Amino acid sequence: MEETLLDxxxxxxxxxxxxxxxxxxxxxxxxxxxxxxxxxxxxxxRPHCGYIHRGIEKMSEALTYxxxxxxxxxxxxxxxxxNNEAVALCVENAMGVEVSDxxxxxxxxxxxxxxxxxxxxxxxxxxxDLGALTTFFYxxxxxxxxxxxxxxxxxxxxxxSFITPGGLMADVHPNxxxxxxxxxxxxxxxxxxxxxxLTGNIIFRERTKGIGIMSKxxxxxxxxxxxxxxxxxxxxxxxxxAPYSAYPFVKFNEITLPDGDTYSRYVxxxxxxxxxxxxxxxxxxxxxxxxxxxxxxxxKAPKGEYYQRxxxxxxxxxxxxxxxxxxxxxxxxxxxxxxxxxFVINKLAKGxxxxxxxxxxxxxxxxxxxxxx
Amino acid sequence: MQTEELTTxxxxxxxxxxxxxxxxxxEFILPADKLHEVAKTLKENPQTKMDYLFSxxxxxxxxxxxxxxxLTSTEYHHTVVLRVILADRENPMVATVSDxxxxxxxxxxxxxxxxxxxxxxxxDLRRLFLDDGWVGYPLRKDYxxxxxxxx
Lengths: 373, 151
Fold this sequence. Notes:
heterodimer, A: alpha+beta, Cytochrome-c3 Hydrogenase, chain B, three-stranded antiparallel beta sheet, globular, B: alpha/beta, Beta Polymerase, domain 2, five-stranded mixed beta sheet, two-stranded parallel sheet, 22% helix
């Protein structure tokens, strides 16, 4: 029996490698972490991606601009509206046209609804990753209201492809404003429940506070943006740095927290939901009248190169278009937020227990198709 | 920093730089051997402080393979675009900037994977998305594949 104990001690000193994923519930998609462990401690971690690489950039080179909008939905499917908007804005800037204020307002309303829906789903999944199953039901219950608003206007719930170069696919449903106002009232009552259920929970706090600390310098160095970067005090909100659509017309605060641990990344997202509700409230009653689609003869970007930055629910999305003047791009590149947010994970997880890896990767809020494209 | 000052700064390091075509941001076309030096100066000079590389990508153009770097400063919010044109399609090579911005390590792996551009002194230059045994570099214009849909 003594020998077995000795063996156990020896084993504890040895390093070994396990694969987490590609099919693992906490990676929320097909991503594989090659984790080197000593006992339960992470020595290093290597992400392996490409399991859902579809070649969206190559495919887009053979499609016209209004067609390739549909592929952007499939990158970060929880920020579908914002991805559409990014391409639409880039093409409109290239063509030198400006959409009506009505379109700008509706686009921003959709963007903020998307942001809330995305943060709700992240909240459900994050709670569930840490063993709190109830959050999943609470979050999905509230997200349903937003998806209903999407469905009523756009006809679909996840990949809407509603925003297109030149405006919107159609005008909004007559119920649109009423439904949003109902949702704002409803969700203002429900959001404090999120805090009661999870934020104040002692087990949750113990598992997130001081775990996976990312300094502001590391966030900038790796290009970690969005709520994950702002949780480290990196002021990176494109809505403030380079306002687009209706953001110049609204007042809101950029949420940044200095600590950089898993808990602050969590708090940033909760606070952002409150801010998004404020933005919605300022916009929903003031949607101006106007056309929802510009009359364009052809959607063609003139010869040149164009870059557009927008803020999705996960960070900075950049669309880079190289055009030869034809109806399709010569090269289109998406600088996706999740790609840059992923690779900092080795730095964050090193030295922590393997159970903390689940909390850390959950707090970065990764959507894998956005990494692989 | 204004475009004129940036031009002076970059010309001092790389006298044969050319202005780029982009109207959106100040852009400089650099020879491949000067890229690392210019990038390092832009990052470390207290007047530029380009600490955030927000995009690194490539494009296959008529004049060769282009590598495009978008840099910005989180303090001053000025942006600059650097471009390197590699005419050699067989063995395109440029120095890595992953020692300056850690995020570049993976962006460069992606460019290597899809364009076949090699980054000198890169710590771990492997394919990122495709299989290790994949033949060819898909985002090049001369890439042939029976599945590609052509217009």
